Every structure is written in C-alpha cells, then in structure tokens.
Amino acid sequence: TELTAQLSWEMCNDGITEDLHDIEFINDSTGIAYSYGTGNIYRTEDWGEQWQIIAHTDSIYLEQIQFYKSTGWICGEYGKVLKSVDKGKSWEDISIQSDNNLLLYGMFFRGVMFGYVSGAELIDKKFVPKTYLTYDGGKKWHEKLQGFPYMILNLTRKDGYLFASGNGSITKFHMMNQKSQDVFRDTLGIIKQIRDLKFANDLLGIACSFNGYILTTTDGGKTFKTKRITTNRLRSIVYLGDNSWLAAGDNNKTGNAVLYYSNNNGDTWNSSNKFPDIHRIHLTDNHVWIVGKEGLIARAPLP
After folding, report:
1. Virtual CA dihedral for 75, 180, 202, 249, nearest 10 degrees?
2. CA nearest 134: which of 89, 68, 184, 70?
3. pTM above 0.90, yes or no
C-alpha cells in the first residue's frame, strides 16, 4: 500500500480510444506507442501531452518495440519488422519474408546492428518455433536456434546472455555461440506463457506469466521459484528500485485487478483495479508509463 500511495497516475492519451499494446520512450519526453490490431503508430515529443499518428501498417498486430539511442525496431505478425533511424519519426519495412504467418513476439537489439527477433511460424496449423539474428541492422536475417522446443515470447538480456521465455519455459543462451541451457521448465503445465522478465541486479530477477504466476530468481537466473498472485493474465513487469516492483495484465478472470505492487521484492503483492487491461509497463528516467485497452496511456512520477 505504501507504493500504491506514492504513484500518482495521470492520463496522457490525448483522445486516443483504440486499444494500445506497447510503449517505448527514447528519452523522458519523446516516445512511441502503437495500437493492437490496427497498425497505427503514435509519437509524442512532449511527455505524452499530445500524440500524432506517424505511421500505419495495415490492420496487423504489432508485438514488441525497442530503441537503441535514435534507432528503433517494432516486430509483429506476418514477419513484420519496422525500423526507424530518426527517433521514430519515420519507419522502414525490413520484414522477414515467409510463405506462412511468421509471428514475432520477442526482440532484443544489443546495438544498431546486432539483434534478435523470435516467435513461431504457423505451418499446417502448428506453431514451429523460429528465431532470427541480424548482424547488419536488419538488412539480412539469419535463422538461429533451429530445433528450439518452444516459441520464444520474450528476450531479456543479462550480461552476455539472453533469457528466452515461452510457454512455461525459460532458457538461457549465449548471444555469441548460441549455447543454451534450460533454467526453468513447468512440468505441471500450470504457468502458461511467460511474457516478461526483468532483473533488479546480478542475482535478483522476476518474471510474470499468463496464468497469474510470479517467478523469482535470487541466483542470477539459475533457478526460479513460483508464486501465483492472481488468476488474471500478467503481461509486463518492471523494477522500480528500493525493493519495489510493478506488474500488470488483464482483467480476464476475476477480481478486476490489473496492476500489482510489491514493496518487498515480490514476497507480497497489493493490487489496483482502476484501469482497463494493461498490456505494457515502461520506465523512463523520471516516470513509469502504462498502456493498454481503450486508449490507456498513463504516467506516474517515480517515487
């Protein structure tokens, strides 16, 4: 409850009413948000006071966004990868060509040239896991991690490794030699999709899942302990500092809660229900941002 009281939310959607899926800020004032299923990309230069549509990519689902300095990428379904080199003012199509629907969910760029996208290709009504790597900023894509057992929905960097999370699984693999090892596997089938993972320091990290589970590591990702905090979907999690975390998701089952706070590194959680479904939480230097359904864009000063 202490953290809940400290976060003072301000709506910043500037008349946007469509569902929004993700948000990323290049600096504390300039940011990009995009819609869920209509292909609209919005941009602000004034801390979210005003938003302009700066691109439209047909009615497709865009899943992940990342900026590295002035260069940014967005990935989604049908192999869609968009790239901007001007802080999101304009976007170039650098999509991965496929004969089938290539669904790209995870993404991580280490710089303007070297990056991964991941997900699955829908072949004969089955999802075949796919991961691609580029060495030249997206001009060419090379398939990696062939034979990976599950689709990778999220990629999180820690040191020289990426933690790839999917349906009840977390695998750690080396970015250069591709060697991988499973660090969590849900043998009971209760965790469902693990959609986000963040590290607070070298040892402590927390992930969240579509079945309302929090997965905590205190040994740098070697092992994870699980705790269910809701029956609702959890989609996104961030570390706010000072042992405090924020997780968010959908009101798809019960309780109306979509935002969850912990002041003790995930031991206990308090919930808030004053928002529609939240699809992503994002941190800037001075604010925490949330986006979601019904045009939700809100910010709160960091405590």
Report:
1. 40
2. 68
3. yes
